[in-house]
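Appendix B, record 7
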Amino acid sequence: MFVSKIDSCLFYNETAIYNKNHKVFDKALENANKAINYGLKHKNNISVANGYFTLAIIYIDLKKYNDAIEKLIRSVSILNTAAPSAKLGLCYYNLGLCYMQKENFSRAESYFEKSISVYESIDLTNAKNTVKLQKALLYLEKNEDSVAERTLEELVHLSKSKDTFKLQSEALYQLGQIKVKRKINNLALNYFTRAYDLSIENNDLDQQSKISKKMSEVYDQLSETKNALAFLKIHTKLSDSLQSITKSKTRSIVSERVKVDEIMRSMEKLDKEKKEQEKAGKFSKLINILSIALITILSLLSLSLYKNNIIRNKSNELLREKNNELEIAKERIEKASKARSEFLSTVSHELRTPLNAINGISHILLEDKPKASQIEYLKSLKFSGTYLLTYINEILEINRIESNNIQIEQISFAIKELLHNIQSSLREQASQNNNDFILNLDKDVPEYLIGDPTKLSQIFINLINNALKFTENGTITVNTKLIYKNDENCSLKFEVQDTGIGIPKDKLESIFESFSQGSVEINRKYGGTGLGLTIVKRLVSLMGGKINVTSEIGTGSIFSFNLDFKIGEETAKSNDFAIKNPKIFINKKILLVEDNKINQMITRKILEKKQILCELCETGEDAILKLKLNKYDLVLMDVHLPGINGTIATEEIRKFDKRTPIIALTAISLDENREMLLSFGMNDVITKPFNPDNLYKIIETNLLVETNIV
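C-alpha cells (predicted):
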C-alpha cells in the first residue's frame, strides 16, 4: 500500500522504478527528479547519486543513451568520493552498455574493465562474471571472435550453482553461435545442448525458447529433419506459453495500477476534505494573513524582477564573452591542426628522401657481388631501412592507428626467419651496452604462419629496443612458446625479457601512454619519444592479443602477449615482383626527372642494371622541353621539383603528348594520394624509397601497355 506523501529519496526512487517497469515513463522521470532535488535540498550526496542513477536507467529504457551517459557520469563523480560500492560498479556497467549501443566499443570496454575492478575490490564475484559476459558480447560485436571465445570458455568453467546457471547457459549459447559462424555445426550443437540443459535446470523459459529455435536451425542445416522439427515444436510451444504469461502479467499490471490509482485518489480526497475543514475554522484569520502576505509577495516579486533583470544582463554579457573565447579557441585548434599536418608532410618528405638513398645503395651493393663477410651486414642494413620506413609511416599516421583504421595483412611468412632477421639487425646495438641477445624458439612452432609480418616485426623491434635501452651488461631474451596447435590453427606466446633497471609498480600502466617513459629522470637519462610501447599496445590489440608486463626494480622486466595464427605454407619469395619479359628493358630510353643528386645516381644505377638508357634532367621546365624535342619510351617524374612541380609539368606534357607513359616518383606526403596524382595525367605512382624489384615491375607493366598501343 502507498503512503500519500513521504519526504524520502528512497520513496521517490522506488516509485520511479515502479513506474519505469510499468512503462509509465512520465511519472518515472518526475519521481527520479524529485529524488535528486530531495538529496540536493538535504545535502545528501549518496541520495543525489542514486537519483541520477535511477534517471539514467529510465533514459536507457527510452533509448536516450546520451542523456543516460550524462546522468551516469554525474552519479559516478559523486560515488567515487566514497568507498567502492556495488552501485559504482553498476554505474560503470551501464555506461559500458550505453557506449555499446553507440558502437563506441573501445570506451565501452574501458567502462566494463572499471566495473570488474570495482566488483573485485568488494568481492562481488557474480556481478563481475556478468560484466565479463557482456565484454565477450562486445568482442563479438567487434568481430574479435577468438578473444570473446576465451572469455566465454572461462565463464563456462565456473563452478555450477543457481547463481551461475543463467550466466553459463548464455555463455554456452554464444559459443555455439561462434561455431555456427565457422560452420562447425556438430560442435555448435554440443554447446547448444549444454546451454539448453542449464536453462531447464534454471527454469528459464525465454532461454529455452531461444536455444531450441537455434538448435532447430542447425539440425536443419545438417539435414536431420526429425530433430529439426522436434526442436521447432518445442520453440513454438514455449513461445505460446511466454505470450500467455506476458498477457496475464499485463492484465495483472493494469489491475494493480487501477487499484493504486484508486487508493491514491481516495487518500487525496480525504486530505482535501480535512484541509477544507481546517480552512473553514480559520477563514477570517486567514483573510488578514493573506492580505499581508500578498503585499509582501508583490514587493518581493518586484525586487526579484529587478534583480533578475540585472542578473540576466550580466549573464548575457558573460555568454557573449565565452562565445568569443570559444571562437578564438576554435581558430587556434584549426591552426594547430593545419600546422601539425604541414609538419608531418614535411617530416614525411625529408625522412623518405635519405631513406631512398639507404635502401637504394644497400640494394646496389648486394647486387654488386659483395664479399661473403659483408653480405650479412648489408642484409641487416636493408632490413633495418625497410623497417625504418614502415616505422616512419606508422608514426606519421598515429591517428589512423588510434582510430583502428589500420588493416591487418593475412599473408604466409616464416616466423623463425623473421625473428632471426630481427636478432641479426639488432645484435650490433646489443653489443654497444655489453648485452647478450638470446633467441629461444620452441621446436614445435610451425615454420610458416598466416598473419602480418611487418606489424609483428614492429612489435618485436619496439620491445627489444626498449629492453636494450634500459639494460647494461645484461641479457635480453626473446622467447617463443607454442601453447596449442591443430591441423589448421595454433596459438603462440611471445616474451621479451631483460635484466635492466625495471619499472616501478605505480608506473606499469602509464608506460603504455603516449610520450610516457615512467619518469622525467628516466626520460632525461635514456631519451626516446615514448611512443614505442603505445604503438605496441595498439598493434597487439589489433592482432587480437593483449600486452602484459611484469617488472621488479633492479631485476628487469618481462613483456608478454599471446596471438592466434592460422598455419601457412611456404611461398615463392619473389613472386610478387617476377619479371615476365626481361628483354623488354634492353635499350629502352627513359627520361628521369629528379633534382636530388643522390637519388639521380641510385635510380640511374638501378635502371642501367637492366640495360636501360637513362637520360637526366632536374626541372619540370626542362622535362617539358625534352619531350617536345625527343621521343622517350617512358618518363620517371619526381613530384617535388624546383620551379614548376612534377604534376604541373605532366599536365603541360599531356597537352601535346598523350601516349608516353609517365610514372610519378614521390616521397608522398599526407595530403597526396594516388588518385590525385593520376588526375594530372600520370599513368602510375612509385613511392620513395622504392623496392627496385617493384620499380622494374611497374616499368615493365607500362612499357607493355605502350607496346600494345603501338
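Remarks on this record: The chain has 24 helices and twelve strands. Confidence is low (pLDDT under 50) at residues 1-7, 523-529.
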